[in-house]
Amino acid sequence: MESTLTNMVLVLVATALIMGGLLAFVNQITLAPIKTQADKTLAEGIRNVMGGGNLKVTKTDTVQLDIAGKTADFVRHQTENPQGKWLGTAVESTTQGFSGDLKVLIGFDPEGNILGYTILESGETPGLGAKADKWFQADGKGSIIGKHPEKNKLAVTKGGEGEIDAITASTITSRAFLRAVNNAYRAYNEKSVDSNTEATQIKHQEKKGEEKP
């Protein structure tokens, strides 16, 4: 083919179309496995933050809160044991960390106490901010397990803000994590506006005399 401007443009356009088609094809065939893995990770996370054992998610809904003047979505997963007893709620909460979004899943029992948590997504610096997945666990230096966001001041001890020890040399990530936890508790208590969710809540209240958030 003669090397002309027109021919070069045609070759570039054809190459771009072929590469675009290949990328779209690869994206399509990997979409399902990625979603399956994400669903599996979330299911395992819910089980872990709710104390483990055999449980089922009976309702998932989304609530919106005004956080610092911006609307934020929080996904709630209501859980029960095989006997139908309400175990509490796992809440997905995302906040801005030091290097990017920090997405946390926090489990609350029926009284609002923290049962557990896991990090779903984190853009924090490895070795410092990334320690959040262990630091605030039951055996960590800044444990939040068993604490209640209304009865305990879930903020870092630095500057007299709260009662939780911050991750060493990573105060910003620690504050972001605790902000995500406190926001999750607000979402846990938020009344749902979804009619189906309300019907489910009423059913459980009549059955067990327990009021869900």
Please sum up the structure shown.
By secondary structure, the chain is of the alpha+beta class. The chain has helices spanning 5-49, 132-135, 171-189, 195-208, and strands spanning 56-67, 70-80, 86-96, 101-108, 114-122.
Describe this structure in words.
38% of the residues lie in helices and 24% in strands. The chain is an alpha+beta fold and 213 residues long. Strands 1-2-3-4-5 form a five-stranded antiparallel beta sheet, sandwiched between helices. Mean pLDDT is 83; it is low at 195-213.
Chart the SSEs and their pairings.
Layout: H1 5-49, E1 56-67, E2 70-80, E3 86-96, E4 101-108, E5 114-122, H2 132-135, H3 171-189, H4 195-208
Antiparallel strand pairs: 1-2, 2-3, 3-4, 4-5
Task: Please describe the structure with a list of short key phrases separated by commas or semicolons.
disordered C terminus; 213 residues; 38% helix; alpha+beta; 5 strands
Strand order of the largest sheet: 1-2-3-4-5
- Biggest sheet character: 5 strands, antiparallel
Given the helix and strand composition, which structural class is it? alpha+beta
Q: Which H/E pattern describes the elements?
A: HEEEEEHHH
Shape, per Cα inertia axes: globular
Query: How many DSSP-defined strands?
Result: 5
Provide a count of the helices.
4
Strand content bin: 15-25%
Helix content range: 25-40%
Radius of gyration: 22 Å
Low-confidence stretches: 195-213
